[in-house]
Amino acid sequence: MKLAFSTLGLPGQPLSEVLRLATAHGYHGVELRAHPEEPVRPDLTPEERADVAAAFGAAGVEVLGVAGYARVAAPGDDDAVVAEIRALLDLARDLGAPYVRVFPGGDPGQSPEEADATAARRLGTAAEYATDAGVRILLETHDSHRTGADAMRVLGLVGHRQVGALWDVMHTWLGGEQPTDTYAALSPHLGYVQVKDIASPDDTTPLPLGAGVLPLAECVEVLSREGWDGWLCWEYEKRWYEAAAPLPGLLDEGRRHLARLLNESA
Questions:
Q1: What is the mean pLDDT of residues 45-52?
Q2: Which of 15, 31, 170, 183 is the most buried (most CB within 10 A)?
């Protein structure tokens, strides 16, 4: 498996610093948070996009994915959500990224059936555009659809190879789902896996990998046993927790911890 980290852990940092950290600490790739606060976002010009792609190429670091904020199950206008996804797909294509992340974003006022149908309809519409772009749309296990079983209700309705799943290990754990069950649900559709650690269900402040309660060893063991050889991406949520320790000082030990888990599972 290859290792990446998300720029959610380095809010607002210039790309040069992100790439310096990736190369200095032995990470193969970076997940780029696509948000107006960040240097890489959908409103970049073609020239700026080419510069970003060239910088990654020169550093020998891969763009794992573009982490967008489209909420595919949310109430409202389909066209606006599909347009947001298409803008993310265009950015990912121009950067050479294989994946775009979207959220479920269902509303408590919706029935599960309505949320599932809304998400599937929008993802199905965007899927053909994703095919042309050569990029996969990944529905993250998050918010209204936090388990693998939840995500599969949507993916089963879509039934398109360009629409898959992103396994966030914190949300499936908070949803009470075991890693074996999550993998069984998502494996036909799994793009990559986001790893992280927290102290408890009531305190989700990010911790160094291995310092909290999330079942990272079990997740890696399941993936290894099944012969899955994709990406593990450390999503350290520094942007939402200002008091959390800075990510740069944790990157070396985080990589070593994941390497230990991989070695032990092998």
A1: 98
A2: 31
Contacting residues for 88 by C-beta, under 8 A, at least 6 apart: 34, 42, 66, 68, 70, 100, 102
Picking from 182, 181, 264, 195, the residue whose alpha carbon sits closest to that of residue 231 is: 195
Q: Which among 154, 148, 75, 143 is positioned nearest to 113, based on CA atoms? A: 154
Q: Are 243 and 15 a contacting pair, CB within 8 Å? A: no
**Quick check: 81 pLDDT over 90?**
yes
**For 190-203, what is the mean pLDDT?**
98
pTM over cut 0.90: yes
Pairing type for strands 99-103 and 231-234 reads unpaired
Residues in the chain: 266
Half-sphere exposure of 10 (CA within 13 A, CB side): 24
* Nearest residue to 222 via CA among 190, 193, 265: 265
